[in-house]
Amino acid sequence: GAVVSQHPSWVICKSGTSVKIECRSLDFQATTMFWYRQFPKQSLMLMATSNEGSKATYEQGVEKDKFLINHASLTLSTLTVTSAHPEDSSFYICSAPSPSYEQYFGPGTRLTVT
Amino acid sequence: GEDVEQSLFLSVREGDSSVINCTYTDSSSTYLYWYKQEPGAGLQLLTYIFSNMDMKQDQRLTVLLNKKDKHLSLRIADTQTGDSAIYFCAESIDPGGYQKVTFGIGTKLQVIP
């Protein structure tokens, strides 16, 4: 079946630094990918829709200048958390619709900002 | 807008059946999903059902959809300790999967040995 990977799986960074998270579709092409964040004991909240070759679409309340999304190829989308702060600590999950119209999710990236 | 609701917690004994319930508000939902999330891990798609179906069975999993009441349930037969996880109900209005998926808050299933 379709597989989506994320890298890194866990990152710890200092406050004020930037962190890049990669999302790859391993055996299919994805013109669209989605980025979610999940706080402890809460559901996934959609942050933005990443579109290959065009600008990402951000959900209301998500700062586009803080969460930079680049969908440079049909198999890769990146999320960069700029000037990270402790409140950005969360579990970030990406997903991509497969050719069979199922949403496949990556394993997630746990970001801890100290 | 879309809203998906589910109970927060369910406890069952090993070997019993588990039933996790979910309600949604968007009548145009086309795909309805059940995802499993184990501690510290990402989401695993368990099963999904099209809105024009009433039931779908896949080994120990049975999904029932009452479209009139916008009610979705997941039944796990012969529940095992390995089934302990958080189960998310989710819906999407786009059959192509190119629209966002809206998730419920998740039901934590605890299986007692």
The structural class of chain B is mainly beta
In whole angstroms, the N-to-C terminal distance of chain A is 37 Å
Number of strands of chain B: 11
Number of helices of chain B: 0
Q: Order of helices and strands of chain B, N to C?
A: EEEEEEEEEEE
Which chains share the greatest interface?
A-B, 21 and 23 residues
Mean pLDDT of chain A: 90
Rounded to the nearest angstrom, the radius of gyration of chain A is: 13 Å
What does this structure look like?
The complex is a heterodimer of chains A (114) and B (113). Chain A is built from no helices and eleven strands. By secondary structure, chain A is mainly β. Chain B is mainly β and 113 residues long. Chain B has strands at 4-6, 9-13, 18-24, 31-37, 43-50, 55-58, 61-66, 71-76, 85-92, 102-103, 107-112. Classes of the chains: A mainly beta (114), B mainly beta (113). The interface between A and B is medium-sized, with 21 and 23 residues.
Notable traits:
heterodimer, A: 114 residues, mainly beta, 0% helix, globular, B: 113 residues, six-stranded mixed sheet, 11 strands, 55% strand
Topology:
The complex is a heterodimer of chains A (114) and B (113).
Chain A: E1 4-7, E2 10-13, E3 19-25, E4 32-38, E5 44-51, E6 57-58, E7 67-73, E8 76-81, E9 90-97, E10 103-105, E11 109-113
Parallel strand pairs in A: 2-11
Antiparallel strand pairs in A: 1-3, 3-8, 4-5, 4-9, 5-6, 7-8, 9-10, 9-11
Chain B: E1 4-6, E2 9-13, E3 18-24, E4 31-37, E5 43-50, E6 55-58, E7 61-66, E8 71-76, E9 85-92, E10 102-103, E11 107-112
Parallel strand pairs in B: 2-11
Antiparallel strand pairs in B: 1-3, 3-8, 4-5, 4-9, 6-7, 7-8, 9-10, 9-11
